[in-house]
Amino acid sequence: LIHYDDLPPWLQENKYIRNSYRPLMPSIKSCLKSIFRLHTETGNIWTHMIGGILFVCLLIHVLYCYSDCLVHKWDEKLVYVSFFVSVVTCLALSSSYHTMLCHSENVYNIFLKLDFVGITVIITGHYIPYLWYGYHCMPTKRTLYLTITICLAVTTIGVILSDTMAKPNYRLLRTVVFATFSAFGILPIIHFLSLYGLDYIYSHPYLSTALMCLILMSFLHIVGAFLYCSQIPERFFPGKCDYWFHSHQLFHTIVVIGVIVHYIGFTNLALYVRQWPDKFCNQINIQYPLL
């Protein structure tokens, strides 16, 4: 293992993580073997690898154990599959990037861009369940929001795949691009609240849980992005977080927790829509639509 100062410039992303970096390994086999060794990327690799396995198992559990009450129809199955596939895709690409980044500069750039694609995919996947169930009674608006989401995802990928954005000193700008895509979600949320009202939402535990989970997930992602951009806590303890608890590792952990919270939230929304579809549709306040 080598010191930060011995890294090539394109790997010098966090000066507060001082030691225990892998040297360049121009061999795929060597990179894969390093998964099972302790170094600066070990936590980054395993947090998302374990998370990916967890969510594959959870998807199988949902499809087989809740086929009657939750995912009975093909479109409901598609919503859950889309969400979990987006999550697993992101986590798999992330683990692959952290595994292969020490191979060579060319391979590093390829996998970094794939990591960016994975982030865009998971953001898109997070929109789908809430839009699908939240706008169950308004298929036209649901289609509109889903279409805008896809267009924003394609645009984000186009911007983020530029060679300039892959450079270490563009960490903040990359975060801003992804945050902007995520911030679009505020619009359908406000629209939804204007149609149903907080009194109605908080009158039922399923709906209130769905909203609170959405708020909690957003808070977690903001905290994770802040830690990632500010390089906290290693900024205050240089060389002390080389293996564990550095910002990128904490960010990975927060992402996994956020996915679990999001799943709980939209599942509560789905259960409400399944059990009381007429009540849900009749409650829309048509006098004050936002759109």
Question: Helical percent range?
Answer: 55-70%
> What is the straight-line distance between the termini?
57 Å
Round the Cα radius of gyration to an integer and report it: 21 Å
Low-confidence stretches: none
Reported for the largest beta sheet, the result is: none
Strand count: 0
The CATH architecture name reads Up-down Bundle
Q: Rough shape?
A: elongated
CATH class: Mainly Alpha
Look at the structure and give the mean pLDDT: 90
Class from secondary-structure proportions: mainly alpha
Order of helices and strands: HHHHHHHHHHH
The CATH topology assignment is Rhopdopsin 7-helix transmembrane proteins
The number of distinct structural domains comes to 1
Strand content: under 5%
Task: Please provide a written account of the structure.
With 291 residues, the chain is mainly α. It has a single domain (4-282), classed as Rhopdopsin 7-helix transmembrane proteins (Up-down Bundle). The protein has 11 helices and no strands. It has helices at 28-33, 42-65, 74-100, 105-134, 139-160, 171-183, 186-196, 198-201, 205-230, 247-275, 277-282. α2 runs parallel beside α10 and α4 (105-134) packs antiparallel against α5 (139-160). It is elongated and about 65 Å long.
